[in-house]
Protein 1
Amino acid sequence: MKNFLVKDLMVPVSEYATVPKGATLFEAVTALEKAQEEFDVEHNLYHHRAILILDYNQQVIGKLSQLGVLRALLPRDESIRRIEDISRFGFSPKLVNNLQERYRLEAGIMEDVYKKAARMKVEDYMQTPSEGEYVEENAPLDTAVHQLVQGTHLSLLVTREGKIVGILRLSDVFAAIFHVMKDSELSS
């Protein structure tokens, strides 16, 4: 593999979608949309798929993925929990999904779910990074590939002297490796 370092492929925090702790999901999705538009124009690369959550000192404390936003849309009341519990007794996923759908339709839950979700706080749905989700900016790309694969992560937080300075996305790593592979194959 070409001698890439993590910092060669990372997206700096300043170019990524960020919101402060306490922001709503609506504010987070708006920040993601804006960052994607700006990043597309400048880099013509893959879209961002997460929002970084910052504390009051502008330090990254978590990530909110697109899947995290979608999880906020799912009702989490006691009836839904009981329906989910029956799956542990051997009932098919199809039956459980049908029961959940029927409950949502009968209860009229989906009518105002988007309004409620828009006002929810990002910290209630963000993922706090685990130890295996950090990589030093001067680490070789091989190290990052290993971490991405072993942890099945879609991105890693890039650090410099213990502070998060960027994000290394799986899509960018894949693209770089593909181009090196392609160049290697075409030159032989």
Protein 2
Amino acid sequence: MAILLWILIFLTTFCIMEFMAWFTHKYVMHGFLWSLHKDHHKKDHDSWWERNDFFFIFYAAVSIGCFIGWQYYGFWAGLPIGLGIFAYGVTYFMVHDIFIHQRFKLFRNANNWYAKGIRRAHKIHHKHLGKDKGECYGMLFPPLKYFKK
């Protein structure tokens, strides 16, 4: 029974992270920490590393904190929560950084309806180079209007 509870917590955490991605993107990245996110919208640097990548470090630290809580402090839900955050982070990195922005040249030929919808939604978000007016949404499930045939 405990394993089913852990799986439920893992899946719930993964789904909550989609909300957190939207919330963080809209109110933090396009809000008070725009100074870290703006180089993601306007490439004014030659570096592979972006200041925007610091957001990844924050969520990695939260996930690691959950693992530490599970291992050393008896926080039994720390493992499935930490794994859910980690799994979302890996998925986000694969979809956003590798598939959409091609930071590594992989998945270039994906052209199914989902791939096209994700690319379309992200392109519309990035057409605005400033802090305001860019539509914000979660990474894995943008609005259905982007998935037209």
